[in-house]
Write a structure and sequence with these properties.
With 457 residues, this protein is of the alpha+beta class. It is 56% helix and 18% strand. The chain contains 13 helices and 10 strands. It has helices at residues 15-36, 42-64, 70-91, 96-113, 116-136, 147-197, 202-209, 233-239, 242-262, 287-314, 351-362, 372-378, 439-456, and strands at 219-231, 266-271, 274-279, 322-339, 343-349, 368-371, 382-390, 399-407, 417-422, 425-430. The strands form 2 sheets. Strands 1, 2, 3, 4, 5, 6, 7 and 8 form an 8-stranded mixed β-sheet that branches. The longest helix is centred in the middle third of the chain and has 51 residues, at 147-197. The radius of gyration is 42 Å and the shape is elongated.
Length: 457
């Protein structure tokens, strides 16, 4: 099937010229058959010749086109078409059937090609043509139509309507094909966009999709920065096959990313087994709330890591993997960095970012270290212990750090998380996660374990 833009006559810019030719020939034929045959009426013959010359001129104008004036040119020529038809019908003494047919033809053409505005303009032009001719050569009104005149008009108008229907059908088929192709392209684009969105931060993705480059401009913001990595992962990578290692790492990163999303953080980047998360960029809730969400996220990650340890142990991985985490709060530079012509990265830079990374490196396995700035924001909600001063690479002065114990609500009488690990016995109880319909089963399992211990004693 031919498509718009090729050499198919159905889709050339001059296609209206071919329909105009059919209409003008029909109008001229109607006029000549009525007044120019068999007796020659030079007025009718002259006007018919004028209409044919008009066709040549309009065809030439349709072919060359005037840049930026195509729509206006089509309107003007449409007015001329309607006016010439009006003059022809007037000279043909408004024969009943030809007048009705050509009047209907004008309505049909205006409705199909231009809508209400073109309908109004073409009808006004048609009336002007009729009235102007009537003032110069008053028609003789007749109630009936001559057979040859009516036949000429009927054949011409019928051919026009038939060809118009064929054209519309062919165009609709081509448009339907194009719509189908566009829908397929849209589905592919959506799929690609979804896959691409997983490689970009929400800030970058929103800036691209909304075409708002201001979101990526460099700015200074007070952020809470989180770093983590797996202690002993390098040694483990030497022991495991590449496929097993990849599955383990993907499982770990997937679980950690779910926790990041739950607490409203933004993953800035993955660095092998390391994760960098930012709180406060985009929709910030204030420095205190951002920091609290970050520390709560770290605690949730530590708990989840215990579950993953048991999962990996059952899969035959004996090495106990634990994560080290460092958190710091301060003003950082957020923006786009890199080579504009080759590669750009939207990230966070600054001394406070480096400090968070240094705290992660200084942490023991399973430990969460905070800077004094972060601790001062969350000390009322999170129980921490002072670990004193540590030397951090790149800093000329010692850094005071704090170790995160847990949320205060989880400690004491209101404690909701219990954990015990000894030789031959492991227990992890998170009361917030136990479903109501599973409580009886958990209680029954604990009672069985207690009875077994007592019987053995």
């Amino acid at each position: 099937m031919s498509k718009p833009g090729n050499t198919d006559l159905w889709f050339l810019p001059q296609r209206q010229f071919y329909f105009r030719t059919l209409v003008i020939f029909s109008a001229a034929g109607t006029l000549v058959s009525y007044r120019g045959w068999p007796d020659i009426d030079w007025l009718a013959i002259g006007f018919a010749i004028f209409m044919l010359l008009y066709l040549v001129v309009s065809g030439y104008m349709a072919k060359i086109r005037f840049p930026g004036q195509e729509a206006a040119l089509d309107r003007y020529i449409g007015w001329a078409d309607a006016a010439l038809i009006g003059v022809s019908l007037c000279l043909a003494d408004f024969q009943t059937l030809p007048t009705v047919l050509f009047a209907i033809l004008i309505q049909f053409n205006a409705a199909v090609t231009g809508g209400s505005r073109k309908w109004l303009e073409d009808n006004i032009s048609f009336i002007i043509g009729c009235v102007s001719c009537g003032l110069i050569a008053p028609p003789e009104w007749k109630a009936s139509s001559e057979v040859n005149t009516s036949a000429t008009a009927l054949i011409g108008v019928g051919a026009y309507v038939t060809l118009s229907g064929l054209f519309m059908n062919k165009r609709n088929r081509a448009l339907n094909t194009k719509v189908g192709e566009l829908e397929e392209d849209l589905d592919r684009t959506k799929s690609r966009a979804f896959r691409l969105s997983r490689y970009l931060s929400p800030t970058v993705w929103n800036a691209i999709t909304t075409e708002n480059d201001k979101m990526l401009q460099t700015d200074r913001k007070r952020l809470t920065i989180f770093f983590s990595d797996i202690q002993g992962f390098t040694a483990l990578s030497e022991e495991l096959e590449a496929e097993t290692l990849a599955a383990l790492l993907n499982t770990y990163l997937t679980e950690m990313t779910k926790i990041v999303a739950h607490f409203g953080g933004t993953v800035d980047k993955f660095m092998g087994d390391g994760i960098m998360v930012v709180f406060g960029d985009g929709k910030t809730r204030g420095a205190k709330e951002d920091c609290l969400r970050c520390v709560s996220m770290a605690i949730a990650m530590r708990k989840r890591m215990k579950v993953l340890q048991n999962h990996w142990f059952r899969q035959g991985i004996k090495r106990k993997l634990e994560i080290r985490m460092g958190i710091n709060t301060g003003f950082c530079t957020v923006g786009t960095f890199g080579a504009k012509a080759h590669h750009l990265d939207f990230t966070v830079l600054g001394t406070h970012v480096n400090l968070a990374s240094r705290l992660e490196s200084a942490a023991d396995p399973g430990e969460i270290l905070l800077s004094h700035e972060s601790w001062s924001l969350i000390k009322d909600t999170i129980l921490c212990t002072n670990k004193g001063m540590v030397e951090a690479k790149g800093f000329s002065y010692p850094i005071e750090v704090y170790q995160v114990i847990d949320l205060r609500k989880n400690l004491g009488g209101a404690q909701t998380y219990l954990e015990t690990n000894t030789e031959g016995f492991t227990m992890q109880l998170d009361l917030d996660k136990v479903r109501n319909y599973e409580r009886d089963k958990v209680i029954g399992d604990l009672e069985k374990a207690l009875d077994s211990l007592r019987e053995n004693d």
